């Protein structure tokens, strides 16, 4: 994976709480077996409304999405980060995220930016007032900057930070622990069930 | 002093850190969230570390009408074919469409005895929380994590905080586990459990059969929690004894000795706590577009202005606009034209029995289309052995084969645009049950009563009608 140390660009304001994964990408898109090609499904239902913010040409080309609390609630579908990425987003700023979604974002190279509610409110107001507003997410330093609006820290857990900044493949990191995994594996209780291939 | 969640978690930690490296005892797979994971393994030339600790089935995409195999659309057929190839290549047990073991992944795991106390269980599906009802740490993961588990049988996971939701007292008559689950979410909110594993405790939880416990844990995710858990007890052991993959003989005795230690120590501290009085809870129905937007069936659609929190107020305004509901409308005055009984929340045999008990000798209202969709092929067969299919058919229900069906609306089973449904599923998100669908989450008994009356109702409402 490519390292992600900084995301800079314009931002789309999506001032709603509890934006769920069924809105981010409807289930019908999950019949596909590919990992890319989901841009058309992003907020598919809401985009049918010409007044929806993503249809506003002033926000075309934005790389950051700013939204309300509990962003990404609902399903575990990684198709949601894939759709956001394929559409062109690289960072999502919100006061809080749903757990599974927040964990999924870095695996697609996207940055979950959990900032204080007043910071998010100020950013929402700024990018709503002026779509040309530039935001800089410094992933390495875990800060979000917007001239005249904020210069604030955000939360990003250590392991996600480490992998994003260094572009590490998590499976490689884990496979290096093979001996420890095998040692633990030998302690798995004998009564625990197994699958039966060819069942 | 340790919580149940802490005990099970600690047993599986291989390496401690900001995120712990956790060993995974069982990996369940369905057709939607795994193809890209297998493709990733193929591209990297990596094998599946423990194909014997994975079990797969097809549920989201599968048609539920007569002869489902003939009804598959092209994309769904391709996805099922890819799943069969992946499982065959890596030697993974698969219960495909058309086989006797097929069903909703969270329903077949317990049926087979694959979900036991003290295990770590994952699946690329948020409703894996269901399986915490057995005293397991069970949670949903993304596709990159599915790939990680296939390659390593482990996951890096930050140690979750713990939350105790204690439900005390005796619920009012006619109140089901689904009503408890909805009332809990309405109380703690869609993000009330964020960052935690919830342990549901108290006499009202202990009194639930396993099916009801699974319903409660299933919806832990709708309150933002990673998962729900319930301490294993004699109810759990009785459910597991004799299942196909449950231990037998001396191993069963050893397992029992271990499982009996899996409970929160007296005095162990939780990071968060909520105490709920079950005696105040009756049948529930959701009115909005997230599961916390729920109230008692005797209630009315709230006025958004009554919410003190600005975000909640805005969410309620948007929800009422989407649902086309006015503040103050009695829930019983909301007409429904679709009724869905099924899903990983309420598609088990006990759920079908509860709905059939209401339907026996009654008819679905002429204005209503009603579907009964068993959670698994095994549940379907058991229900048919008891004659439940006849009860549903005689009442005017469509009796289907098993799958996720109208809970997720991927297989052609959808609510018409703009129509209101009474559904035993778990999410009332906009367009979840089909574009423009307006979903009301209810229990199986309430769904059946709503089918009879053509509006949101509880089974008690049928008293005067009969």
TrEMBL record, chain A:
It catalyses: (2R,3S)-3-isopropylmalate = (2S)-2-isopropylmalate. Heterodimer of LeuC and LeuD. Pathway: Amino-acid biosynthesis; L-leucine biosynthesis; L-leucine from 3-methyl-2-oxobutanoate: step 2/4. GO terms for biological process: L-leucine biosynthetic process. Catalyzes the isomerization between 2-isopropylmalate and 3-isopropylmalate, via the formation of 2-isopropylmaleate. InterPro entries: 3-IsopropMal_deHydase_ssu (IPR004431), Aconitase/3IPM_dehydase_swvl (IPR015928), AconitaseA/IPMdHydase_ssu_swvl (IPR000573), IPMI_Swivel (IPR033940), LeuD (IPR050075). GO terms for molecular function: 3-isopropylmalate dehydratase activity. Signal peptide: none annotated. PANTHER family: 3-ISOPROPYLMALATE DEHYDRATASE SMALL SUBUNIT (PTHR43345:SF5), 3-ISOPROPYLMALATE DEHYDRATASE SMALL SUBUNIT 2-RELATED-RELATED (PTHR43345). Residues 1-115 form the Aconitase A/isopropylmalate dehydratase small subunit swivel domain. Belongs to the LeuD family. LeuD type 1 subfamily. GO terms for cellular component: 3-isopropylmalate dehydratase complex. The gene is leuD. It holds the Pfam family Aconitase_C. Its EC number is 4.2.1.33. Keywords: Amino-acid biosynthesis, Branched-chain amino acid biosynthesis, Leucine biosynthesis, Lyase. The keyword Amino-acid biosynthesis applies. This is 3-isopropylmalate dehydratase small subunit.
């Amino acid at each position: 994976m490519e390292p992600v140390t900084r995301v800079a660009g314009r931002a789309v304001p999506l001032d709603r709480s509890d934006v769920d994964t069924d809105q981010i990408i409807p289930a019908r898109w999950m019949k596909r077996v590919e990992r890319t090609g989901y841009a058309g499904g992003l907020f598919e239902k809401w985009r049918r409304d010409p007044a929806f913010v993503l249809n506003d040409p002033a926000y075309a080309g934005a790389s950051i999405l700013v939204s309300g609390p509990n962003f990404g609630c609902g399903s575990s579908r990684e198709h949601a980060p894939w759709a956001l990425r394929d559409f062109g987003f690289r960072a999502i700023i919100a006061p809080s995220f749903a757990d599974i979604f927040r964990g999924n974002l870095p695996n697609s190279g996207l940055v979950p930016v959990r900032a204080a509610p007043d910071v998010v409110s100020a950013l929402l107001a700024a990018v709503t007032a002026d779509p040309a507003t530039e935001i800089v997410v410094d992933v390495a330093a875990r800060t979000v900057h917007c001239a005249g609006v904020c210069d604030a820290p955000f939360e990003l857990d250590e392991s996600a930070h480490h992998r994003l900044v260094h572009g590490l493949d998590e499976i490689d990191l884990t496979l290096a622990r093979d001996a420890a995994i095998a040692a633990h594996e030998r302690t798995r209780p004998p009564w625990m069930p197994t699958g039966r291939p060819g069942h | 002093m340790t919580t149940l969640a802490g005990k099970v978690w600690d047993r599986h930690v291989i390496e401690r850190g900001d995120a712990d490296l956790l060993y995974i005892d069982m990996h369940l797979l369905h057709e939607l969230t795994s193809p890209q994971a297998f493709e990733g393994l193929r591209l990297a030339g990596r094998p599946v570390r423990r194909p014997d600790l994975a079990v797969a089935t097809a549920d989201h995409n599968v048609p539920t009408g007569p002869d489902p195999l003939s009804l598959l659309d092209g994309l769904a057929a391709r996805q099922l074919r890819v799943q069969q190839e992946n499982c065959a290549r890596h030697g993974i047990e698969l219960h495909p469409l058309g086989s006797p073991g097929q069903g909703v992944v969270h329903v077949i795991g317990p049926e087979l005895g694959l979900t036991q106390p003290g295990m770590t269980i994952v699946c690329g599906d948020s409703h894996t929380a269901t399986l915490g009802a057995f005293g397991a740490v069970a949670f949903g993961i993304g596709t990159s994590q599915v790939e990680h588990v296939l390659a390593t049988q482990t996951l890096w996971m930050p140690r979750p905080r713990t939350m105790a939701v204690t439900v005390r007292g005796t619920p009012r008559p006619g109140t089901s586990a689904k009503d408890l689950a909805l009332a809990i979410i309405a109380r703690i909110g869609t993000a009330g459990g964020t960052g935690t594993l919830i342990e549901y405790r108290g006499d009202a939880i202990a009194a639930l059969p396993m099916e009801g416990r699974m319903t409660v844990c299933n919806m832990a995710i709708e309150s933002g929690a990673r998962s729900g858990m319930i301490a294993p007890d004699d109810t759990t052991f009785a459910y597991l004894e004799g299942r196909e993959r449950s231990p037998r003989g001396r191993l069963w005795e050893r397992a029992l000795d271990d499982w009996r230690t899996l409970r929160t120590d007296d005095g162990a501290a939780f990071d968060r706590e909520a105490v709920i009085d079950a005696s105040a809870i009756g049948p529930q129905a959701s009115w909005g577009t997230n599961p916390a937007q729920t109230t008692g069936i005797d209630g009315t659609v709230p006025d958004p202005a009554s919410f003190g929190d600005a975000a909640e107020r805005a969410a309620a305004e948007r929800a009422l606009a989407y649902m086309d509901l006015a503040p103050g409308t009695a829930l019983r005055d909301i007409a429904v034209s679709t009724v869905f009984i099924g899903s990983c929340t309420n598609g088990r045999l006990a759920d079908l029995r509860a709905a059939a008990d209401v339907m026996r000798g009654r008819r679905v209202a002429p204005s209503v289309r009603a579907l009964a969709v068993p959670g698994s092929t095994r549940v379907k067969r058991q229900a048919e052995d008891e004659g439940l299919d006849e009860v549903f058919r005689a009442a005017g229900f469509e009796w289907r084969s098993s799958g996720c069906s109208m809970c997720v609306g991927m297989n052609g089973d959808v609510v018409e645009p703009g129509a209101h449904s009474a559904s035993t599923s778990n999410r009332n998100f906009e367009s979840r049950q089909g574009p423009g669908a307006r979903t009301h989450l209810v229990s199986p008994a309430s769904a059946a009563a709503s089918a009879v009356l053509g509006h949101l109702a509880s089974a008690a409402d049928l008293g005067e009608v009969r």
